[in-house]
TrEMBL record:
<protein>
    <submittedName>
        <fullName>CHAP domain-containing protein</fullName>
    </submittedName>
</protein>
<dbReference type="Pfam" id="PF05257">
    <property type="entry name" value="CHAP"/>
</dbReference>
<feature type="domain" description="Peptidase C51">
    <location>
        <begin position="73"/>
        <end position="196"/>
    </location>
</feature>
<dbReference type="InterPro" id="IPR007921">
    <property type="entry name" value="CHAP_dom"/>
</dbReference>
<dbReference type="InterPro" id="IPR038765">
    <property type="entry name" value="Papain-like_cys_pep_sf"/>
</dbReference>
Length: 217
């Protein structure tokens, strides 16, 4: 099945305030009058739609120092490429999937369903339960998400909160710099909740395999 392209189908969310001019121009070509995203969310995840119990889980401790993180300039270049490729696919009437977007945005060269990425990465890429900029967050499959999901870490806010960029979380769309919160009891990023739309957190908890880093393991 194919889908007719329209200006509303592929709508990347606005980047943080430190986005380069070229990247702002790229995002604005696919959305109408976007509100500027704050430079960083306040400690404590102050989202109107987030349940009080979820807000209480968010730690204000600083995240550990990154050892495999990607340089911000390189991540911006890769994300631009991923968005451009997604736009080109929509223009041809093709679906925008999470796997090609994550591959383009992270540089992790794995193919196949997202549910297979964790096992495929073994021996190829460094894997961990610690989020770092440029790493792929690998979602385990669920009943409603049988093929799993992948997203790319775009920013570390604190030890329990990051921003991610991914495709097809909202059908056929690209979502940039969306909040992801670790709600696991041990702060090991095995369970997360996500920002589905700006200021709106999902009520569902999603299982996570871990993070695949674009450095060879």
């Amino acid at each position: 099945m194919t889908f007719a392209a329209s200006a509303q189908d592929l709508r990347p969310q606005p980047r943080p305030a430190d986005t380069t001019a070229a990247e702002v121009a790229l995002v604005q070509t696919t959305t109408t009058a976007p509100a500027q995203r704050p430079r960083a969310r306040p400690e404590g995840l102050r989202l109107a739609a987030a349940p009080a119990a979820l807000q209480a889980t968010v730690s204000t401790r600083n995240a550990p120092a990154s050892t495999h993180a990607v340089q911000p300039a390189l991540l911006r270049q890769r994300t631009q490429l991923a968005v451009q490729n997604a736009q080109a696919k929509r223009a041809r009437g093709q679906r925008v999937w999470c796997v090609p977007f994550a591959r383009d945005a992270s540089g992790v060269q794995i193919r196949g369903d997202a549910r297979t990425w964790w096992s495929q990465a073994a021996g190829q890429y460094h894997r961990s339960n610690t989020p770092e900029v440029g790493a792929v967050m690998n979602f385990a499959p669920t009943k409603k998400m049988r093929r799993g999901h992948v997203a790319v870490v775009s920013r570390i806010v604190n030890s329990r909160q990051i921003l991610i960029s991914h495709a097809n979380w909202t059908r056929n769309q690209v979502s940039l710099d969306m909040v992801a919160v670790d709600v696991s009891p041990r702060n090991d990023w095995s369970q997360v909740r996500l920002e589905h739309r700006r200021g709106q957190m999902t009520s569902t908890t999603y299982p996570i395999y871990g993070f695949i880093h674009p450095t060879r393991g």
